[in-house]
Amino acid sequence: MRLVQLYVPRGERETVLATLDAAGVEYGLLDETSDGAYEAVASIPVPTGAVDSLLARIRDAGLHDDTRIVVLGVEASVGGADADADRDDGGQLARDELRARAIDLAPAFSTFAVLLVLSSVIATAGLLTDSAATIIGAMVVAPLMGPALTASVGVVVDDDELASRGVTLQLVGLVLTVVTAALLGYLLRGTVLLPPGLDIVAIPQVAERVTPSLLSLFLALGSGAAAVVSLTRNVGSVLVGVAIAVALVPPAATAGLGIAWGDPMVVLTAGTLVLVNVLAINLSALVLLWMLGYRPHSVDGLDRTVRRLVARSAILFVSIGLLSVVLIGMTVGTYQVASVTHDVDTELESMNDAAAFDAYEFHEVDVSYAVHDVYTGEPASVTVLAERPPGNVDTTGLADRVRDRLESATGREVDVVVELVDTQRSS
Fold first, then answer.
1. Most exposed among 14, 122, 298, 355, judged by the fewest C-beta atoms under 10 Å?
2. Any idea which fold 336-422 has?
3. Whole-number Å distance between alpha carbons of 91 and 53
4. pTM score
5. Mean pLDDT per 10-residue run, the chain (427 residues)?
6. Counting runs of H as helices and runs of E as strands, what totals does the chain give?
7. If DSSP codes are grouped into helix, strand and coil, which group holds residue 89?
8. Do domains 2-91 and 336-422 have the same CATH topology?
9. Rounded CA gap, 184 and 188, in Å?
10. Which fold has domain 2-91?
């Protein structure tokens, strides 16, 4: 339920009352006794989903554009024909409410910058310590949901200043995250706080961000849509904000760590993931807001907004498509790596039952094969542990025979190292 308070300009009482009567709404009218620009205040209880239509009728009646209208949330409505009309109706916020909430969600720059730097520090520490809980905790602090929604809301309601502020905050926020992570990584590298010779790519939480797949794109699209639903339906947005932050802050922090460690591949893959995610969040939010019916007030504003919406959506879509080439490549490469590892394990299992290797028991120790090896044509390096009984077992050409079997199974060139171990088992 909403309470719409309409400040009636002097000389327009009859027009306002006729409009409200035609709309069939209940209202109360208080005379304004001051010498200001208004002669009365009309208080109108309205279901949430009906606010926009009421405001449209009031404006269509010819009221001045500077007429003050205040929309208030109602905790409870007792008595009256529409007392329960708004209960669980799932109504959307009115256009003006949407704009006001979007403005509130984008904090002052100083607050935004401080919270984002703190979130980046926590997220970077979580990445370096491989702590998923720490990373998620950092996402609660990150104030990125507001700017993402502010940019899209500004476009659909034809508010250039609001849209520009949202875009600026997003860009500055991502740069802040990358710089903060790079500085923290540079300061921590080589200290007692991190193991000597630490390979950041070997950390699972970091590896997850440098081997992105197309599923990451669906995460970002879903996060943007969920943010719009939480905003327009006026429901809790904390968890949705976490989802958006997860899509942006950790990969941006990973790119910063790549700079600190001087690893261009980490910067490229994590940076691509960040860009794809931020573009996808904005695209899904923009399209869904338009589909939900949010429009500018004026016809001129509508025409201008349609042109901008089409242009911006096209730019976002094309940019996502181009950047997704990297995601597709990573997805295919990751699949190939997993496939080779699986085929090696399967073939070694079958070799244990083969008569040609009845004297041995094979175990896969390590398969060294990365995504970049798939595209550079480098062979997979496989280390195999071969148990054999003590005695004079002929091992001539064993590594070559194992290699031939594994190359046949994987369809790829394989370098094999066989580690021989004399084993006795009790009977």
1. 355
2. Alpha-Beta Plaits (3.30.70)
3. 12
4. 0.75
5. 80 80 80 76 77 74 70 65 51 74 82 92 93 88 86 87 90 94 92 87 90 86 86 69 85 95 92 92 90 77 84 91 89 91 92 86 87 89 89 80 92 91 77
6. 14, 7
7. coil
8. yes
9. 6
10. Alpha-Beta Plaits (3.30.70)
Contact 12, 69 (CB under 8 A): no
d(CA 218, CA 283): 12
Query: What type of residue sits at position 366?
Result: D
Structure-token match 């209208």, residue found: 69
Q: State the Cα–Cα distance between residues 41 and 9, nearest whole angstrom.
A: 9
Q: What is the CATH number of domain 96-295?
A: 1.20.1080
> Residue 253 carries which DSSP code?
H
Q: Which residue has the tokens 């669906």?
A: 218
Domain residue spans of the chain: 2-91, 96-295, 336-422
CB 250 within 8 A of CB 291: no
- Other Cβ atoms within 10 Å of 212 Cβ, number: 23
**Single-letter code of the amino acid located at 343:** D
Which amino acid, residue 365? V
Sheet with 414-422: list strands edge to edge: 361-368, 380-388, 414-422
